[in-house]
Amino acid sequence: RIAEKKLRGFVAANNIKFPILIDKFHVFNGLAEEGTVVMVFDWNRKMVKRYVFPLNKGQIEEIFKFLTESDKKGQKK
């Protein structure tokens, strides 16, 4: 609960508009055997990408590019 509250505060403080989910029921544990991961669900391309921490510069740029493109598409609606 504390982590959820902190995450909600972080999302609000940083004006994050994309959905962030916490895997409470450990559904994705098999995908995170190597450590903490970020998963990006691209519904338009019907694709899921998985990034294992620590992220390298290229991965960070790729994630932010995806989020920026997604935000622009959302604003057009």
TrEMBL record:
Protein known as: Alkyl hydroperoxide reductase subunit C/ Thiol specific antioxidant domain-containing protein
Species annotation: marine sediment metagenome
